[in-house]
Every structure is written in structure tokens, then in C-alpha cells.
Amino acid sequence: MNKRIIAKTAKIKNSKIKASYIKIDHGATLEGVEIQAKKIIIKKNANLTKCKIFSEGSLEIGENATIKENSIINSFLGVKIGDRTLIDRNVTIGGMQSEQSEFVIGDDSVILYSSYLNNTRKITIGNRVGIGGYCLIFTHSSWPNVLDGNPYKFAPVIIEDDVWLPWNVTVFPDITIGKNVTIGGCSLVNKNIPGNTFAAGIPIRVISKKKKISSSKKNDIVLEILKDFNNYLSNYLEYKTSIKIQKNSCSIVADNLRLIYTNDFSELKPNDTIVAFKIPVKLKNEHEWIEFDSLSAHTSSEISKKLLFFLKRYGIKIPID
Q1: Is 29 within 8 Å of 47 (Cβ atoms)?
Q2: Other CB atoms within 10 A of residue 315 CB
Q3: Parallel, antiparallel, or unpaired for β 3-6 and 21-24?
């Protein structure tokens, strides 16, 4: 028996949706889409525009996820897209299908313009993964007759959390890329890459291990970012701002709000928004705040939200609550 649960605030326009079970949560927007699966779950505030998704299994799209124009996803076993994840324009996830074709991507990840992911076998992508434009990921490699001695391979691809593939990276079948790996642009990934490394080349090789930076270096980077943010506010968004930078602190005043970065909380004012690596619980209950160590925030002001958006330039991804 068919079952459709569609929130009154969901917006569906010029779309074809076919499934035996459909659940679309509030705030979701679907315009010009074509979706067919056995079971469809689209969570709140997801945004799908002029894309096509096909599966013989289940489809789940997370909260605040985005799939842009002309993207196509075809995955026999199922599709799962995490919260706040972006599938950019002209992305293709599909190719020759099999009984093992499946696509899973976690939260806060992105696949950019015109990338192609072949999912003859399962592709698993973790959280906070960036896949640049024109990347190629393959789970099968065959074309000429294998009985004539030609090569062939069918195997899944796993990309773990916090990996960055810049533009024009190619990944071969049967590859695992470990956590916190950065791949050089235009690289050919034909072997497993261990976690916490930089790797690049054709074919790829590990260049170096990633090293943790010191607290003083982190402090210097944050001060540089906040100085850049103040310039962004004043020169691009045309806010009237004032900034005060000291060795271990920085305050920015804009729109009658003070953002203060500090590790010494003795000089806070009642309406300050605190920016810090670690903030005591008591102060979290008394102030709005942005915390780097936990990558979390509790803030509602427009300036704070602009800072959270700005931090993404530097790869610091803190969800807006």
C-alpha cells in the first residue's frame, strides 16, 4: 500500500516523485525534480532543484542538504545523503549498475561541479569530505574482452572523514583513503592512502605526515582570520567596524555587537559574543558563543552568523544552530 507523508510547509513544484513510501519533512523544497525509489525520505529544509534520482532501494536526503541543477544519481541498492551536504551542478553518480551499486555520503560534505562517480560497486564517503570539481571516482575498470588477457577490476571505494580531494583527482577501484587526508590536485589515486597524510602525484605517493600545530600557531591563525573577517565586513559588506588586536585576543565591534576572541575571560561585557577554543560551561549559559575545539556554536546575531559562514573559507565548518 502506498503511503505519502508530506509536510504542509514542503514546497513541491513541477516534480515527479514515485515510491511506495514517501516522507517529505517541513521546509523541504523540490523544484523540477524526478525521483523514483522504493522508499523516499527527504528531511527538513532539504533543497533539490532540477535533478534526477533513481534507485530500486531507499533514498534518504538529510536536513539542509542541497542537490543542484542537472545532477543525476542512479544507485540500485540505495542512496543516503547526510545533513548539510551539497551535491553541486552537473554531478553524475551512476554508470553501469549492479546488485552491489550503492552510494552513501555523510554530513557536511560536498561534491563540486561536474564530478563523475561510478558506483558499479558501493561508494562510501564520510563526514566533512570535500570533492572538488571534475573529480573521477571509479568502482569498476573493464572494457576490452577479459578473455583476451585484458585487465578488469570491480571493487568499492571508501573515503573516510575529513578528506579533501581538490579538482581533477582520479580514484581507481578498491581504494580506501584514510581520515584527514589531503590529496594534491590532478593526482591519480591507485593505492590506499593512510590517514593524516598529504599525498599527490601520477601515480600518487605520500608526501608527508600531517603534524599537529602548536597552540601559539593556532592563536596566530585565528588572529589572522579575524583581521581578514573585519576587512570583509567593512570593505565588502560595508559595515562600520572597529577592531582591536592584541597578542592573544581580538575584539571586533559591528552592528552594536562585540565579538571577542580571548582565552582570558576576565574582561567580558554582558552582551559579548565569545569566540574561543574552549569556553567554560558557566559562560556558555550567560553569553552567545563560538567554540573552535568542539566546532560548535550557540549564537543568533547576523554578525556571528556571517563569521561562521566566513570561517568556511579556512575549512572551519561550524554548524549554525
Answers
A1: yes
A2: 10
A3: parallel
Residue appearing with cell numbers 568542539 = 294
Neighbours of 54 (CB within 10 A): 18
pLDDT tens per residue, range 164-198: 999 999 999 999 999 999 999 999 999 999 999 99
DSSP 305: H
Residue 2 has what pLDDT?
A: 79
Lookup: cell for 266:
576576565
Domain residue extents for the chain: 3-209, 215-314
- In the DSSP assignment, the letter for residue 236 is I
Ranges of residues in the chain with a pLDDT under 50 are: none
- CA 263 and chain centroid, separation: 29
Torsion of CA 213, 196, 189, 59, to 10 degrees: -110
Burial class (CB in 10 A: 0-12, 13-18, 19+), 303: buried
Instruction: Determine the Cα–Cα distance for residues 138 and 154; give it in Å rounded to an integer.
Output: 9
What is the chain's length?
Answer: 321
Which pLDDT tens digit goes with each residue over 15-54? 999 999 999 999 999 999 999 999 999 999 999 999 999 9
**What angle, 0 to 180 degrees and rounded to 10, lies between the N-to-C axes of helices 302-311 and 215-231?**
120
Task: Supply 187's cell numbers.
Answer: 593526482
Q: Compute the distance between CA of residue 20 and CA of residue 241 in angstroms, rounded to an integer.
A: 55
Residue 38: all three cell numbers together = 522504493
Q: What is the pLDDT of residue 256?
A: 87
The per-residue pLDDT for 314 is 94
- Looking at the DSSP assignment, which residues form a beta bridge with residue 165? 131
The Cα–Cα gap between 160 and 194 comes to 10
- For residue 280, is the peptide bond before it cis, meaning its omega torsion is within 30 degrees of 0? no
Write the DSSP assignment of 196-215 as a string of letters: SEEEETTTTEEEEE--PPPH
Fold of 3-209: UDP N-Acetylglucosamine Acyltransferase; domain 1 (2.160.10)
Q: Is the pTM of this model over 0.85?
A: yes
